[in-house]
Amino acid sequence: MSRNLRETPAIRKSLLQLLFTGAYMKRWNDKLRPMNLVEMDKQAHKMMTAWLLFMLASRGMGEQERLTLGREIVEGGLYDYLFRLVITDIKPPVFYRIKENPEHFKLLSDWVLEQLKPRLLPLGEAFWNDFAAYWTEPETTGLARSILSAAHLYASYSEFLLIKSVNSEDEELKDIEKSFKDGLARHLHLPGVADLLSPTPGEFGRFAQLCGRLRYQTRWSQTPRIPETSVLGHMFIVAAYSWFFSLEIGFCQAGLQNNFFAGLFHDLPELLTRDIISPVKRSARAIGDLIREYEERELLSRVLTPLDQGGYQDIADRLRYFLGLDVGSEFKATCRENGVTRVMHSEELQAQANEDRLDPRDGELVKVCDSLAAFIEAYTAVRNGITSDQLQEAIWRLRKQYQQQSLVAGIHVGALLADFD
């Protein structure tokens, strides 16, 4: 997909809120569920799996081919998510039946596009045209679509396995499970899919399973909220915000993807340590350093070393870069040249290192998006009638933090937060 990255779209409050609505969308809501399953979590697991499949599929590709494939995967994932936010409760079998009839699907897609246009058009005509074309042009069967389809099926099947045992008398279960297995079997040509399907997966499949477990960890666990959000869903929202702000700023192809995937994996250590709230981390420098040291040690022993030893050193190395392990923080802006990682301020990175060959990753931008996601979580809960000292304090602290800074990592954060009354 072609687009002038220097075009100046505008991120608005409405888009941030739209992306967050996936936290409300219940999944499997016609089945007995042992836990809350929502669209935002599923999309996070899907995109993590898509990245893993992309890493294997792009081995041996030239740099431009790899960047093009990565962009198609991220865009396709976000486009699909935005579409699903509108069609909400249409059951998958009904949706797929509609897609099989071009006339019926056009009616549905035209209506969805009409609903989304006011929210997405501020991102620019080029973005809107690409998004509309994705849903109105004949569907292709390229590598990106195949990776996204396999990742979607795997993430949904992972959810199915969570509810399978408590729905043993449901007569639909056998057909549902068969459809997942048959669908994934059609993607066995993709490296890694066989391991995802294996009852005894290797380190690749094991890591994909581990990522899905982040849905078990509830954010703000001691503060009642509506809707509740998991660490997994939060990571997806940070990734989506990072993509759209990176697009607004005009990042190169590598920077766009690095910022998205850095956002998508930024809380990965919490898989091993649980969600430790910011006041605890900031209470004393020694405590923060101790937590960081423990997170890195656990990440090394339980994730990175097994991937290295299992033949996936490229995946482990990329995770190290996304998480800023070689520079001490995932929220530092970095670039790489001749194998050396260099820390820069965000403004310097955007002005001097915004080139594919320098592999830029704007951790400061990801941090702003992390703060915006936390603000949206607290703000939405308060608007839904849930008040607590913790939520009010978080909203006040984030407003105060950014109100004196007109521009942070290229984002007008103060002005954006001012839109929220």
Concise synopsis of the structure shown:
The protein has 421 residues and is mainly alpha-helical. The chain has 20 helices and 3 strands. The chain has a 3-stranded antiparallel sheet with strand order 2-1-3.
List the helices and strands and how they pair.
Layout: H1 13-20, H2 39-57, H3 63-87, H4 92-100, H5 102-120, H6 125-136, H7 143-164, H8 173-185, H9 193-197, H10 203-212, H11 231-249, H12 253-265, H13 270-273, H14 278-282, H15 285-309, H16 313-322, E1 333-337, E2 340-344, H17 346-352, E3 361-362, H18 363-383, H19 389-403, H20 413-418
Helix pairs in contact: 2-3, 2-7, 2-10, 2-11, 3-5, 3-7, 3-12, 5-6, 7-8, 11-12, 11-18, 12-18, 15-16, 18-19
Q: Class of the largest domain in CATH? A: Mainly Alpha
Number of strands: 3
* Strand order in the sheet with the most strands: 2-1-3
SSE order, one letter for each helix or strand:
HHHHHHHHHHHHHHHHEEHEHHH
Rg, Cα atoms, Å: 21 Å
Strand content: under 5%
Average pLDDT, to the nearest integer?
Answer: 90
The CATH architecture of the largest domain would be Orthogonal Bundle
